[in-house]
């Protein structure tokens, strides 16, 4: 899942991004509304965690632009105000969910994951294919009943491949969904991660390389 965090309190923004990355999400961070609009115009995001009171361009205007463009991106709006009227107004603008500050990080993560599931064709909470079972919420992976410990990027790559339901996923698509924009697209990070993931999943190999196209399960 790829997430954009838009928050002008930089310490909070960076802390949220770090926490979401530990949950195997690809996260980009910006600190004002104008930068958010720039990123949205370049990258495809599953979820935008959007502070409402932003400098340069207000969060409401960022949300309206996402709706105007007809993007499948879901918006989780954050605000320091807990008033019901503010929450209603944010939802009427086009936000998909609303979370007042201060918030528990576990709740933020759960809401981001719930919104992420709504950006594509609905899939079961637990993904299963080729003897592999992946639970995104519990961050657990099993193969034929054996639990497998994966690093966050390995987990993210496996989740993207399972969600493709047998379709080929290119290295570029994996970079887009499992890494953030600071990753050099010319590195071999995808190949190395897939290689390590194959080793951890064990034999027989379930991740197939399709020459010139990408990978599939």
From TrEMBL:
Keywords: DNA-binding, Phosphoprotein, Transcription, Transcription regulation, Two-component regulatory system. GO terms for cellular component: cytosol; protein-DNA complex. Residues 2-116 form the Response regulatory domain. Residues 124-217 bind DNA. It comes from the Bacteria. Member of the two-component regulatory system CutS/CutR, involved in the regulation of copper metabolism. CutR suppresses a defective melC1 gene, encoding a putative copper-transfer gene, probably by altering copper metabolism. This is Transcriptional regulatory protein CutR. It comes from Streptomyces silvensis.
């Amino acid at each position: 899942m790829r997430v954009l965090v838009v928050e002008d309190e930089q310490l909070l923004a960076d802390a949220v991004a770090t926490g979401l990355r530990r949950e195997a999400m690809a996260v980009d961070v910006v600190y004002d509304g104008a930068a958010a609009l720039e990123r949205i115009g370049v990258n495809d995001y599953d979820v935008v965690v959007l502070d409402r009171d932003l400098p340069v361009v207000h969060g409401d205007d960022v949300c309206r632009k996402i709706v105007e463009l007809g993007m499948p991106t879901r918006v989780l709006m954050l605000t320091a105000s807990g008033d019901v009227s503010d929450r209603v107004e944010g939802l009427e603008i086009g936000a998909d969910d609303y979370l007042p500050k201060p918030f528990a990080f576990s709740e933020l993560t759960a809401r981001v994951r719930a919104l992420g599931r709504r950006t594509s064709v609905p899939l079961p909470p637990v993904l299963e294919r080729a003897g592999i079972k992946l639970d995104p919420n519990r961050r657990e992976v099993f193969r034929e009943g054996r639990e497998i410990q994966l690093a966050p990027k390995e987990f993210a790559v496996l989740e993207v491949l399972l969600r493709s339901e047998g379709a080929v996923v290119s290295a570029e698509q994996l970079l887009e969904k499992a890494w953030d924009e600071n990753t050099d697209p010319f590195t071999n990070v995808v190949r190395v991660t897939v290689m390590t993931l194959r080793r951890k999943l064990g034999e027989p190999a379930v991740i197939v390389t399709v020459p010139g196209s990408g990978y599939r399960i």
